[in-house]
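Worked Example 4.2. Consider the chain below.
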Amino acid sequence: MTGILRTTEKNLMVFSGRAHPELAQEVAKLLDTELVPTSAYDFANGETYVRYEESVRGSDAFVIQSHTTPINDAIMEQLIMIDALKRASAKRITVVLPFYGYARQDKKHRGREPISARLVADLFKTAGANRLMAVDLHTAQIQGFFDGPVDHLMALPILSEYVREKYGHEQLAVVSPDAGRIKVAEQWSERLGGAPLAFIHKTRDIDRPNETVANRVVGEVEGRVCVLVDDMVDTAGTITKAADALMADGAAGVVIAATHAILSGPAVDRLKACQAREVIVTNTLPVPPEHEFDKLTTLSIAPLISRAIQEVFEDGSVTSLFDGRA
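Applying the procedure from the previous section yields the following structure tokens:
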């Protein structure tokens, strides 16, 4: 008796939560597909309901949701979307996180603290995710928190290309806002023709989140346009103090380049008031109109995410997008 042999067509489907639909639409368009129609709403008591309007059986599903404010709602909605896909027989579920919530809580600084970044990874696994794709995780070790393949995408090529085209003719220096991000600064330096490195030596009060105490510039920045690189701008306290410290040290100018524009609380006012001439970010998080200002330039991360999705779908190499470094 002969068994049934059937090779099914691979079926790429892209889904979006309600946190940042514009980015998901742009990604879907670049993939030459459309977002799967989804009903999503909240009940009176705040519970989330999600249902897909078409069959997802056997699909290679990519669920895009950026963890923006209110962050817990965004995460919960994504978990519910994954659960719905798992129960509707999707073949493989890839969670696409332009911004990974709780990524800063990746280790214990003091006793009796949680490691929330690990908890979030466990939640995705439990919900039914097979694979994780994130842009510029706060620390690379988070890749090890998820039990399965993790694609760690970097916004560096997009940001550095823009900086090179606009400021490449000037004498540059690449500056890390703290000693911990020197590795990223080194990669920036490579892409900017070997620009010299500097970093800001800062002290932080562990009892007061989002606040730094003192800044001292380590490295030669005098007469140079300093590219101050970071993974995120939250309240912008650290980065604006660093920009002002560089100018006080004789820098010719400061350009801030960061992947995630969280822009909480006083961030916009601080960035407007600081001495940086331009603040360059990507749209991993939505930037509402009230957060836009003259010095802010937002570059799209959609081309990077769509290429990575294409590579995963076609069983290609995501690492090849970053010269073998991802």
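The helical segments are 21-30, 71-87, 116-127, 156-167, 182-191, 237-248, 267-273, 302-313. The longest helix spans residues 71-87. Compare this with Example 4.1 before moving on.
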